[in-house]
Amino acid sequence: MPIKLRVLNGFFMGTLMSVVMSAFITLVNTGPGPGFVGRWATAWFLAWLLAVPLAVLVGPHARRWAETLAARL
Predict the structure, then answer these.
(1) Residues 38/2, Cβ–Cβ less than 8 Å
(2) Angstrom distance (rounded) from CA 14 to CA 47
(3) Residue 40 near residue 22, CB atoms below 8 Å
(4) What's the predicted TM-score (pTM) here?
(5) Domain map (residue ranges) of the chain
(6) Which of these, 23, 44, 41, lies nearest to 32 by C-alpha position?
(7) pLDDT 10s digits, 17-59
(8) Rounded CA gap, 30 and 8, in Å?
(9) Is 34 helix (H, G, I), strand (E, B) or coil?
(10) Contact between residue 15 and residue 48 where contact means Cβ atoms under 8 Å apart
């Protein structure tokens, strides 16, 4: 996969996953009360800082692992 596509894919994957996961975990841990959006935004930003680089770096390996496993099933 070309590097530009790999970085864009990692950016979108990391962003979407961090949005959904941080919202869900913040909701479970603190509830939907006052200040939820602020708590979620903080959690999302911190998650995003980790999620995007991980998606870019680990994504190609995960794809190869999935292809190998799928070939064996």
Answers:
(1) no
(2) 9
(3) yes
(4) 0.83
(5) 3-72
(6) 23
(7) 999 999 999 999 999 999 999 999 999 999 999 999 999 999 9
(8) 32
(9) coil
(10) yes
